[in-house]
Structures are given as structure tokens and as C-alpha cells.
Amino acid sequence: MEESPAHPFPAISVIGSNGVVATLRALKRGDASSFGDFLEALSAETRERYNPHPLDRTEAERICAALDDPTALRFVLVDARDDQVLAYLLAQFVIPEGEKARYQNRGWTIEDGADCRIAPVVTDHLQGNGLGTELLKGALGILRQRGCRHVILFGGTRTSNARAIRAYEKAGFKPAGVFRERGIESVDMWLSLK
């Protein structure tokens, strides 16, 4: 029997705009191989924009072995036919001080446990087909049910990534301010789940 993660939640069936049927569920220990395949197949462009942790098989195995971490919740969208990972969303409930400080400087207080930061990513060949929207919608609903007050983006999103900014705005996120880090301009975005 497959071990369940520390934060189980019911699976949700979703359909992308291209007809792909997928299931939103918690990442499981047994997903290490498929999750590793997913991470390693991400394009250089996607890797440049998405980097909350290493994107390789070793990290996939490490993450799947440590799913009892109470400070994170990991969502996946898997293909309903073969259970292969198509998309992933990391929700962290402990937010680095630098990220909290950026919001504090704008008059918003971010608290560990009550608030979280997210990092979603969809496999390259399915980007723009509605699966990211479904991933975000489902994950935000579960985070709301679990009492999360506010959601921020993990390190913001690059101002050059107009498609991602539109998707976040469509989901209700508001811009919180622009910042530069390592020569890259990004925008912090937040969403109230209250």
C-alpha cells in the first residue's frame, strides 16, 4: 500500500482546454520516478523561470522521501491514463525573511503558517492549455480549506513572463510591487484567501 503524504487531500479530476484529463492530488512517495522524469524534461527556458529547488531526479527522490514535512504541501497533476506527472505546485508555509521583508516594506505582514508561498510549473508541451489554471484553482481551494490566509508567489514572477502574470491575475492575484534581484526584474504578487 502506498504511503500517503503528511497533508493528504481528496483527488480532483480536471480537464485542460485541449481535452487532457488529469487528476490533481498530493505528491506521493511512489511518484519519485515520474516526478524525476517530469523535472528532468523541463526546458531550459522553463528551468530559468522556475527554480525553487534543483530540478533533477535526485531532488525528486529526496522530496518524495520527505513528504512528512509539515512546512510544505506538494500538489501534482497526473495524467488520468497513466499517472505520469504533468504539473507540480509547491506550497511552503515557512517563508524566508527576505521575502517577508519585501512585503513588510510595502505594508503587508506575511506570517509563517498562516500564509504560504507557491511555485507552480507545467510540463512544457502542455503549457498554455489550461492545466496550469486548473492546478492553481484546485490548489488554492485546498489551501483555503486548510485555513491559509494569503498566498504569495515564490520569489515573485519575472516581469517578462506576461503569460504567467495574466494567469495569476486571472486567478485573483494582485501585484504587490516590482523588485530587482541578480539583475532580473520581477513582480511580487499576492492573493487573499479570506
User: Which homologous superfamily in CATH is the superfamily?
Assistant: Gcn5-related N-acetyltransferase (GNAT)
Largest sheet: 9 strands, mixed
**Overall structural domain count:** 1
Q: Supply Rg.
A: 16 Å
**CATH topology annotation:** Aminopeptidase
Quote the average pLDDT.
90
* Residue fraction in strands: 25-35%
Distance between the termini: 37 Å
CATH class: Alpha Beta
Helix content, binned percent: 25-40%
- Net shape: globular
Catalogue the unreliable spans: 1-5
Quick one: how many beta strands? Answer: 9
How many helices in DSSP terms? Answer: 6
In terms of quaternary structure, the protein is single chain
Q: Could you give the order of the helices and strands?
A: EEHHHEEHEHEEHEE
Structural category is: alpha+beta
Q: Tell me which CATH architecture applies here.
A: 3-Layer(aba) Sandwich
Structural features, described:
The structure is a single chain. The protein is α+β, with helices and mostly antiparallel strands and 194 residues long. It has a single domain (12-192), classed as Gcn5-related N-acetyltransferase (GNAT) (Aminopeptidase, 3-Layer(aba) Sandwich), CATH 3.40.630. The protein is 29% helix and 29% strand. It contains six helices and nine strands, in the order E-E-H-H-H-E-E-H-E-H-E-E-H-E-E. It has helices at 32-41, 44-49, 57-65, 97-104, 131-145, 162-170; strands at 12-15, 21-26, 72-79, 85-92, 115-122, 150-153, 157-158, 174-181, 184-192. Strands 1, 2, 3, 4, 5, 6, 7, 8 and 9 form a nine-stranded mixed beta sheet that branches. Helix 1 (32-41) runs antiparallel to helix 3. The longest helix has 15 residues, at 131-145. It is globular, with a radius of gyration of 16 Å. The relative contact order is 0.16.
